[in-house]
Amino acid sequence: MFKNKRFLFTILILMSASTMAGCSTKSSSESKKSDAETSSVKKKAHSKSKKAQDTKNKDLHKSSSVAANSSSNTNQTTTTNKSESNTSSNSTTNQTTAKKPTASWSQEKNQKLSAFMKQWQTKMGQSYQGTYDGKIADHYGYKFPQTVTSGQINGHVDIDDRPVNLTWSTNGNNGAEYQIVAAATKDSQNMDRITYLFAIHNGTPEAYYTKTTNGDIVYFLTTRMQNLKKDSKI
Asked: Where is this region: Disordered (predicted)?
């Protein structure tokens, strides 16, 4: 009987040890499994972190590339604008420095004016005495060209309601504001004389006329007869 109890007790001890060993083995297995799962989670987390970092790096590279392209485009635009500005500036400078063509006078033009006035006065039914024919144009005592060359008429002339001084020029290049190159007065003994002055005003050909009969000022106006201005060949 005692032997049987001892045998049973031994079996219980062995069973208990086996159970404990099984538990220990299970616990160890579960621990290893837990470690493996933890390692897997860490690996997944690391992989996600690396992907996120790679994505961030790509975004940064893309942003840097866009910024570089933007900077390049800006530089190109700035260069283009500077080039256009320089071209415009050079063009403006060239236009500014280019001298404006100015009218001039010569003996040949005197002859052309004489020929024109012969035709024109015939058409108008009038007769004119002109300096272009070597004659004196006498407007009630103001005799051209002497009244201009002597300075007699200075201070006694208005053109388009503005007091001016006249100069006489044989070539139209003396630099004065009003250069008279020819004059013609209607040949009349009555008080209906008309005098024309052919002039170069600031480099531009002009024709003025007056019907002033008395007073201290001779009033000239720019002629409205465009054919006289155009065809007189000034």
From this structure: 23-109
Residues across the chain: 234
Q: How far apart are the first and last CA of the chain?
A: 162
Q: What span, in angstroms and rounded, lies between the C-alpha atoms of 135 and 128?
A: 10
Q: Nearest CA to 196 among 229, 167, 171?
A: 229
CB atoms within 10 A of CB 207: 21
The amino acid occupying position 157 is: V
- Any residues with CB less than 8 A from the CB of 102 and at least 6 apart, and which? 172, 173, 200, 203, 204
Instruction: Report DSSP letters for 163-226, one per residue.
Output: B---EE-SSS-S--SEEEEEEEEE--SSS---EEEEEEETTEEEEEEE---SSS-EEEEE---H
**Residue 80, both tokens:** 């283009």
Q: Provide the pLDDT for residue 176.
A: 95
Tokens 């052309």: give the residue: 112
Instruction: Give the three-class secondary structure for 142.
Output: strand
Q: What is the reported pTM?
A: 0.57
pLDDT means over runs of 10, the chain (234 residues): 47 49 44 49 52 55 49 50 51 51 83 93 94 96 97 96 96 94 92 94 93 94 74 57
Q: How far apart are CA 207 and CA 234, in angstroms?
A: 9
Instruction: Classify residue 133 by its DSSP letter.
Output: G
* Residue 59 confidence (pLDDT): 53
Query: What pLDDT does 127 receive?
Result: 95
Decide: helix, strand or coil at residue 60: helix
Tell me the two tokens of residue 191.
Answer: 């008080």
